[in-house]
Amino acid sequence: MEQINIGLFGFGTVGQGVYKVIDNAKNAHAVISRIAVRNLAKTRDTAAPQELFTDKATDILDNPEINLIVEVIDDPEASYEIVKQALRKGIPVVSGNKAMIARHLPELIELQRQYDTALLYDASSCGSIPVIRNLEEYYDNDLLLEVKGILNGSSNYILSRVFDHNQPYAEALRKAQELGFAESDPSFDIEGYDSLFKLIIITVHALGVYVAPSDVFTYGISTIHESDIRYAREKGVKIKLVAQVVKVSDEKFTMFLMPEFVPPSRYIYSVDDEYNGVVIRGECYDRQFMFGKGAGSLPTASSILSDIMARRHDYRYEYKKMRYVDRPEYSTDVPVRVYVRYCETDIPGILPFAEIREQYLSAESNYVIGDIKLCDLKRHRDLLSAPDVFIASLPTFFVERDNQ
Amino acid sequence: MEQINIGLFGFGTVGQGVYKVIDNAKNAHAVISRIAVRNLAKTRDTAAPQELFTDKATDILDNPEINLIVEVIDDPEASYEIVKQALRKGIPVVSGNKAMIARHLPELIELQRQYDTALLYDASSCGSIPVIRNLEEYYDNDLLLEVKGILNGSSNYILSRVFDHNQPYAEALRKAQELGFAESDPSFDIEGYDSLFKLIIITVHALGVYVAPSDVFTYGISTIHESDIRYAREKGVKIKLVAQVVKVSDEKFTMFLMPEFVPPSRYIYSVDDEYNGVVIRGECYDRQFMFGKGAGSLPTASSILSDIMARRHDYRYEYKKMRYVDRPEYSTDVPVRVYVRYCETDIPGILPFAEIREQYLSAESNYVIGDIKLCDLKRHRDLLSAPDVFIASLPTFFVERDNQ
């Protein structure tokens, strides 16, 4: 059995996890041959032999003994350059960089084809939960109707603190940062972009269609207010930041990322703290639910180990659903039912609701519940960024459609 | 893309589901070429062209156009004969027959190797939940510590009726039979054998070790009594029929199948009705949970379709963990903590408890809670079959060990 000699890019939280996990995996026949880092002088928690480290990418890319690259650096642009160079040299890559992959996937797929090599990235979506692999291999396109889930541990941790532990939002955010769940600039998690990138990748493997991140309506939880939390509590629901891709007909699907009022009957209601949970709905098997730790050093590293082991059998994503003739088309011409809370901004006057179903006015804040097309929400995205505005979807709407 | 021409054995509940699902799967490039049934005259709910049907196995096995066999007949012995013949002819087989596979897996693995063909059976364990495929491909041996779950929908449905809907056991069993969840002879489900067979198959793919069904302590729910249910209610737990395989050290694992008192903090506590749920515990990723419909015509058929599609890419199980040099060894020399309820049978006098921790005596019934080795339970299996006896494990024991 040929040994896998790994060139590791990055030795942060995930990189150190990868080092530990591979060191522990006796049957993997894999070793870390070199580790490329930006700053050789930096001290790190995990001890690794000094001679493994280099600050030159070429020490890995031009090393003929290295037959697999694991790339877990933070910077998406640097990651993009390394992955491109590696693929062009025919070296297979395992990566966890969701931002880089979500932005460049069409080109990365083409590079894999052109240079007959593989890029695996199961770790990029939901850490240790094998979502990508299962969508690619197990859930057949014709039967798949919906993938919906909580894909970001940090924002979910914050919402859990608020809903299950009655903490104020600001305090919950601070606590998440203390625990290392949220970055010091938490906007990537809190504004939904981390979840969005995962949703983009999931959609390629679920329906065989790539949609650019900028084409998807994305709304985070940064403007959530005490009145939204009170409203949710009164209704007996929790607010969760939910990513979803849904087939709305045989020919059309839509996707979006926004907070949702989740009732206790839904599986994702009990996905709390830093956990991730994904519901896969199919024509035949109804709903399936996968649940686990979506992030963190060792969970992510164990997912990367699975990708490394898959390379032992020359596994690569076939992207077979991308070749299906009757792939559904992405559309935002799809109505959703939303709750929009506002104060000064004239939401009912500006947003083109197809129908307004409820309206509440008070001295403190107002809200409206109505049906509106996703394309109209996208068109007015700037308006919704006002600090006095918060929007969340009501799952009821899709439920009613299910029952038709 | 070559068309898959399927020879289908069996046209019962699952066979008809397979027919419908394939008929619907536009991108599968698969057709049912022939259907072998025992009785041509029998009327069936699903309409299929009369010319497809035959009552001669050779019409499929000797048909050169058929390049895949799907075997979903009820009778494990007949299924065994068909699968053996097909593999010997080099025809790949997809099967859902857990009893047949659990009993004959070592021989079936050898036949696949010898005749360079494949047998896929993801449908045999937990219907539409892709447990086998994930254990085989995703969860690396070194990191896997435990697989534990509710693998049988019928017995779980009955226990759910009892615990969530306050129905008497006999009434719940009758209701399950009415709904078609339990066979007219329900012992396969109720006595735990259906779950046992799935556990045997899961263990091969989880740890690379085959254990014969007769070597595993197996205890069902047929002797459950009002006093056991009352006891569980008082403690705030539910009784579930749980299958588990657990590494107890680096060198040793154990497995068993028996009712367990499950507290609300456990994922499987909320696996109700006819659903299945599996918890996979690893060193790095802690616990992951997969949940879905474990049985039924269409969920099982969709799993079979996934196996059919996998054959398009020549997928086969590699059984790679079976070749690992440091596979753990199966042992029943492992203590478990159990509750044993009894009336006339002298349980404390006969069972060799290492330690008795609680004992309760009353006019109506008695129970003892103590630690005992699995091999001792196995040795006294007949005693435990007495109608006045019921045994259930307490998960606390393994929890304490986890924390050591």
Note down, in words, how this protein is organized:
The structure is a homodimer of 404-residue chains. By secondary structure, chain A is of the alpha/beta class. Chain A is built from 15 helices and 17 strands. In chain A, strands 7, 8, 9, 10, 11, 12 and 13 form a 7-stranded mixed β-sheet that branches. In chain A, strands 3-2-1-4-5-6 form a 6-stranded parallel β-sheet, sandwiched between helices. In chain A, helix 4 links the parallel strand 5 and strand 6. In chain A, helix 1 crosses helix 11, helix 3 (76-88) packs parallel to helix 4 (98-114) and helix 5 packs parallel to helix 9 (193-207). Chain A is globular, with a radius of gyration of 22 Å. Chain A starts with a strand and ends with a helix. The relative contact order of chain A is 0.13. Residues 397-404 of chain A have low confidence and may be disordered. The interface between A and B is large, with 50 and 51 residues.
Terminal-residue CA separation of chain A: 55 Å
Q: What's the main sheet of chain A like?
A: 7 strands, mixed
Tell the overall outline of chain A.
globular
Helix content of chain A: 25-40%
Structural class of chain A: alpha/beta
- Runs of chain A in which pLDDT lies below 50 for 5 or more consecutive residues are 397-404
Concise summary:
Helices cover 35% and strands 24% of the residues of chain A. The first copy, chain A, is built from 15 helices and 17 strands.
